[in-house]
Amino acid sequence: MQIEHKTTERVEFLDAYIECALWSTNDESDERGGEPLDKNYDRDDLATGTLQSIGHDCRKFICQCRDMICDNYSQAGHDFWLTRNGHGAGFWDGDWPEHGDKLTKIADTFGEVYLYVGDDGPIYC
Question: Is residue 1 in some structural domain?
Answer without folding.
Answer: no
